[in-house]
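# step 3/5: fold
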Amino acid sequence: MGMHEVDLTPSSDPYGGVVAHGQAADGMVRVTVSISGGADAVAFDPRVMRLPAPLLAKHVCHAMQAAHRELLKLIAGKARASANDLQRQIEQIHVDHINQMEYFRSVLDRIQSRVRD
């Protein structure tokens, strides 16, 4: 039996494609979430449609919670990677600055030496 899927919004995710998935009811309820909501979707195995509405709603909530937990982990991972990249860039700027200052000092030393001669 195939899954019935519903796209909640027509647009794609403009925030870098960060998408997470969650499931419940032994995989018969699947949820996809994204930062912008652009990739959000819900899919049901037809067998869960026979469940009472409160139980189906509970399964959807569990799948959403799982998807949001995964999304938060992904976002946190990207934030750590961004912070590490920023730290490396700052360190490189610092090294470049030191090298530039040493070059300027050597130029000034040469100029001072020529003035003395």
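# step 4/5: annotate
Confidence is low (pLDDT under 50) at residues 6-14.
# step 5/5: archive (pending)
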